[in-house]
Amino acid sequence: MVYDGLLVIAMALTTAGIVNIFAPRPVIPEGAATVSLEGMQTVSGPLLGSLIFLQTFAFFAFFWMVHGRTLGMQAWRLRVIDASGHRITATQALKRFIAALPSLLFFGIGYFWQFVDRSALTWPDRASGSRVVRIPDGG
Question: What is the separation, in whole angstroms, between the first and last Cα of the chain?
Fold first, then answer.
């Protein structure tokens, strides 16, 4: 998760930077003695947050659905699969992503849950009908 987190942070910073480059700039009248910042738009808030949220979901969904694993999961030889051993669907990716939010926000309890769960499943695993498995050497 740390590896993927670093990638997501880099993507978010890049997105914010690109949006900031193309954001409209206030026009300051020539010879103005003072400039009021009131009413000026900033490149933040719900629109940028929503864009980064959707971009983060797209990152995870793409890798889970197309490759079965994110770049961070590749480093640890992990793969997410559905109950029949195949790659997950878009619906499962969405459920997994949404369930990951409270799992992380509550001090990671949704992920530590696997240590008390009889089937060793996390909250995102249970919510999406999927599970993370280790890829054997050579696989």
Answer: 21
